[in-house]
Amino acid sequence: MSKREKSQSLLDPAILKPALLGSLTKLDPRELVKNPVMFTVEMVALAATVLTVRDVVTGVAGSGFQIQIVVWLWITVLFATFAEAVAEGRGKAQADTLRRMRSETMAKVLLGVGDTFEPRRAHTLKVGEKVLVEAGDLVPGDGEIIEGVATIDESAITGESAPVIREAGGDRSAVTGGTRVLSDRIKVRITAEEGSSFLDRMIALVEGAARQKTPNELALSVLLAGLTLIFVLAVVTIPSFATYAGGAVSVVVLIALFVALIPTTIGALLSAIGIAGMNRLVRFNVLATSGRAVEAAGDVDTLLLDKTGTITLGNRHATRFIPVTGVTEDEVAQVAQLASLADETPEGRSIVVLAKEKYGLRGVDVAELHARFVPFTAQTRMSGVDHEGAVIRKGAIESVIEHARSLGITPPVDEVTRIATTVAKEGGTPLGVSRNGRILGVVYLKDIVKGGIRERFAELRAMGIRTVMITGDNPQTAAAIAAEAGVDDFLAQATPEAKLHLIREEQAKGKLVAMCGDGTNDAPALAQADVGVAMQTGTNAAREAGNMVDLDSDPTKLIEIVAIGKQLLMTRGALTTFSIANDVAKYFAIIPAMFIAFYPQLGVLNVMGLATPQSAILSAIIFNALIIVALIPLALRGVQYRPSGAAALLRRNLLVYGIGGLVVPFVGIKLIDVVVAAAGLA
Amino acid sequence: MLRHFRASVVMLLLMTVLLGIAYPLAMVGVAGAAFPGQAGGSLVEKDGKVVGSTLIGQSFTGEGYFHGRPSATTDTDPADSAKTVAAPYNAANSAGSNLGPTSKALIDRVKEDADRLGKGVPVDLVTTSGSGLDPHVSPAAAAWQIARVARARGLREIEVQALVNQYTEGRMYGLLGEPRINVLQLNLALDGLAKR
Amino acid sequence: MTLNGWAQIALFCGLVLLLTRPLGGYLDNVMAGRRTLLSPVLRPVERGFYRLAGIDPSEEQSWWVYARAMVVFHIVGFAFLYFLLRLQDLLPLNPQGMSAVAPDLAGNTAVSFLTNTNWQSYGGETTMSYLSQMAGLSVQNFLSAATGIALAVALVRGFARAESKGIGNFWADMVRVTLYVLLPFCLLLTVFYVWQGVPQNLSSYVEATTVEGAKQTIAQGPVASQLAIKMLGTNGGGFFNANSAHPYENPTALSNLVQMLSIFAIGAALTNLFGRAVGDERQGWAILAAMSVLFLAGVVVCYWAEAGGNPLIGALGVDNAAGNMEGKEVRFGAPLSALFAVITTAASCGAVNAMLDSFMPLGGMVPLINMLLGEIIIGGVGAGLYGMLLFAVLAIFLAGLMVGRTPEYVGKKIEAREVKFTMLAILCVPLAVLGFTALASVVPAGLAGPANAGPHGFSEILYAYTSAAANNGSAFGGLTANTVFYNGTLAVAMMVGRFAIIIPMLAVAGALAAKRKAAASAGTFPTHGPLFVGLLVGAVLIVGGLTFLPALALGPIVEHFALLAGTLF
């Protein structure tokens, strides 16, 4: 994975110690019953213990072997609970950090008249109440700024130390409980109650407290329970068969065979895999509202990616001013500069910079101008100034033309369109500039595609994922950038409705769609998408609508999220396959050992050449326990994942975990047998 | 549920009439017209009396006849209807021996026959067939008996050999099944040969 | 093993492959209710049937209604057959004066023929009147086969349809298969079999005076018409006790070849129908390929075991060149007997042309394993396809996660509900087989059954319940099964083996049909290549096979090693 992941040692003593304790408390059958396979092991271990105690008390010969079997049965259960405790422990460490930060916060609840407030404990806040937060205060709960602007330190949640600006209105109005206001004062309307706030959800998630089985986990549990039942049948019928043959098999040996056969490896590691997958996301600074979302991420067929910030570097830069016939470049530069003076967007600033650097136009002090600024709106798709009777506008070409017509001027549509098309075809964005409706020329805004993004998309394509670039640009620009970046498709001049429509269309074709967004108008699309990743900097509406929140607000992460989802499913599949393939060797160890007393001919099946029947059974059960511990790191880390097509992945994983699962236990059991025999244990 | 019940009853009656009555009866008619011999059981008559069927093996014990394979068929014991007695080539109750390969009864039986028939006897002459009515023996099994038959009938071995060759059927289309000799037909031919 | 033996095996396989696609297309047309060559003749008959039975063939049934219709039809069919057998002494077409069939045997037989098992605790020529054979057993041969095909098509619809409530109409499916597929083919096959020598008459048994002057009673009957459907419908219930080893029931190597082809033809064609239905014939070929791998492995082992002969007999100075001939017919020899045994147990036919009880331990283990795996190698008509598809669901779920996506098969996501019902269906064969075998190997009534001592006796019991639960019907014939204990327990095993699979299977069909279809991409688990075939075979062997290893170890496996050591029982 990438450098962004915070490293966490697998064998951190701070995690191991509580995990050892946790593995004991998890033995509580009421707890363990959620894991049918391990619960079954615990029950039969209990039965074996009772039988062995009885045998020891009555002095039955050979109980030393029985005692060893019983011990290893318990160790098997313990290893399983230990695996889960370790996985949880890693999350707990994170949760504790979060909790420490959430000290008892006092809220300044506004009484509705001016700035008067009464101080109250934060946890008493109700949704809809308004609070005042001043410099130095902790934000008492999740909410929306209704008045003011402030710099806020969100490092407690995001780990990012640079403060962020939050202001009323627009897409940056959300604040999170537990963050600290550094400067200025804001009024906040509380949107989440204590216990359901973002921070609470985060703590619950990383601790695994709110963990529910995901659909896929549920299906796998059913399968494992079914296999366990099948092996119950296979084992409980053996005594009758043996009786027919004139022999007998001891109950403890049958229990050993049973535990060796049922899928204990995956049964023991299943929940650890799920918790670890969630933690991997958290360490990527992404919070998922449910495990279901993480699984869905693995299934994604179509990725909708915003062009800006994901595919191209966030900011477009003005690189040229192109005048229409009869207008000089300088004139265009001057008007463009005027139109952009109050435009704080990177594009706006880059126009001012270009005018200054290339055309030597001095910056004008905005305050001196006495101009009225006209901000950009989604309806007009233009911004500008009204200055000394002149109406100066810059904006999308169509809008500027429309604007001209509305003022009764016939614009040079052909020429402007020609220039705009040229710009667009080169992948740039044309911006029309007009004064009093007369179109003077075009600003060439250039998009810069991120380095290495093309290769990422090629990887995604190999994984079978289609990428669609979403952009507000016109189709020509979009096509040029799409070609440069190597996306499969694009949606130009995208409106929220168009996005929503695209998602529905893809879903109707049976595809799973992932997207990210931050604005309130993204909320419907985020909710519709199968995986909706909201940016932490986004609005509350967006954060509620998505099923994941990216604390770094980095839209490229969608790609990593998909990889984590796939890795989670792959790890589960790999260990399931491994676990079941192991049974072949275990049969070859135990069956001859079990029946050799009355059918010596079956000694031929002892292909591993195990020393004695007892050492064979013991070795199988020891292997069965040790393999759980041996695989804990794999369960927590996840299987190695390289982006490639399903066929290649399957071939590789089948080879490693399928064939490996067949071969490894033959070797392992033999080695253990050598040790057991040498130590004289059986 | 009632709707399904009505549909079930009507459907079953219709199907029974079509598949259980009309179909087999029509086939009896068609078969009898097209292949009367086969439809009637491929019976063999000699002097106007049915002596058997070419498809059904029958018991031969005389030295002058080629013997078929051992047969494991049984019949009800005339003394006690709950019991059965050995009745080789009982064509009203086809059956195999159903003895497993490690069965002492099987090996004892084969040993007895093998000892009687001599070393190197072809396996089909000491093993029972699946139906107990196998009409055939292998060419090797026929060859094994030529000397005995020729001796008993006072024929030259070469004459009997020629007859065996004549009655040896190869694989169908040179591919299907195994080479074989129909014992009943061979023996009938032998009797014919003797008459001449 | 001979070159000729292998050539015959290759010929058989080649012919099956040749038949698969055209027959698959025909079946697809019939089941979709499209016009076919026979429509001008049969459409009026079909319509008449619907009208009289009060059925609207275009009514889509949910899985639950479909299952209910099927169950009610079986209950009515059971009652009819049971009373027909009980009353056969009073009914016509009984030239030999067969007495009424005993209650336990009648019950066992009715269940047996309804479930397409055709386990026979009786000998046909000593028990059944011609009317019972024709109007009772033959009719159920048709209907149980038609039901199997209908059910398989219902499951296929589950995969093929998207966001649909219905999985077809049971009555329409059943009637169409019977009229357009089974009956026309049977007409042709009957004439063919008669040509080859199979009797088709209603005469009483022939009294012959043999060449040596003894009396020989030769059983007769309408054999060919019943034989045709017995093979085509993978029923396997013989007209005669010796089944297709009887020279009347299988007179020549050519009739033998056609019988073998009949067993596999529809089952193989259904894989093609599946491929067509899901819009990618390769999916069907992949399923058939997995079946073929398992089939060929079985053929190799079985042929090898039988061709080698019994070393204990060889040791007596017998020329063993022809192989193990105990229980085999000369006209078939070791290769065709082994091939037939593998075919009949791979599909749930159960007809035999040699006595399996006398097979070598490993030769007899192959049929046993074929059935223990759940009859999914071609399988019973329909049953094989739905059994294999359930295994495909399982295999996909087991290993499909390894591609990093929620497992999906031909566009359908496999989730908890499907896994649950699939496991339920897969669980019932071990339940019935191991449960009843364990019971029978300790209670006196069970221990009275086996004719052979030692491990082979255990194999006989194991084989009986395996055959019943797998709805196969073949037997290690030494077992005395016509007792109240065996008739009863085997009947239960047959019902578990049929309905405990069908009903969960239909639930899976219903759940799948309701799902939307996921689009395939490079990230989708490819289910038409050799990798999937290998995976499916592995899953079948490990999940289906390992369960039974202890039982097999105490039966055929130990018998094999005992044989090598010269031990007799």
Provide a concise account of the structure shown.
Chain A has about 675 residues and is of the alpha+beta class. Chain B has six helices and seven strands, in the order ααββββαβααββα.
Query: Radius of gyration of chain A from the CA trace?
Result: 33 Å
- Uncertain runs of chain C are none
Task: Output the strand order for the largest sheet of chain A.
Answer: 10-22-21-20-11-18-19
Span from first to last CA of chain A? 46 Å
Q: Give the overall silhouette of chain C.
A: globular
Structure description:
The complex is a heterotrimer of chains A (682), B (196) and C (569). Chain A has 682 residues and is α+β, with helices and mostly antiparallel strands. Chain A is built from 26 helices and 22 strands. In chain A, helix 22 links the parallel strand 21 and strand 22. The longest helix of chain A is centred in the first third of the chain and has 39 residues, at 63-101. Chain A is elongated, with a radius of gyration of 33 Å. Residues 1-7 of chain A have low confidence and may be disordered. Chain B has 2 domains: 2-39; 43-195, no CATH class. Helices cover 46% and strands 14% of the residues of chain B. Chain B has helices at residues 2-34, 36-39, 104-117, 139-153, 157-167, 183-195, and strands at residues 43-46, 49-53, 74-77, 80-86, 136-137, 168-169, 180-182. With 569 residues, chain C is mainly α. Chain C has 20 helices and 4 strands. Chain C has helices at 3-31, 39-53, 63-86, 103-114, 124-127, 130-160, 170-196, 223-232, 253-277, 281-307, 311-314, 333-346, 361-372, 383-400, 416-440, 444-447, 455-469, 484-514, 530-545, 549-564; strands spanning 206-209, 215-218, 408-409, 412-413. Chain C starts with a helix and ends in a 5-residue tail after the last helix. In chain C, 72% of the residues are buried. The interface between B and C is large, with 104 and 129 residues. Chain B: Belongs to the KdpC family. Chain B: It is a single-pass membrane protein. Chain B: This is Potassium-transporting ATPase KdpC subunit. Chain B: Keywords: ATP-binding, Cell membrane, Ion transport, Membrane, Nucleotide-binding, Potassium, Potassium transport, Transmembrane, Transmembrane helix, Transport.
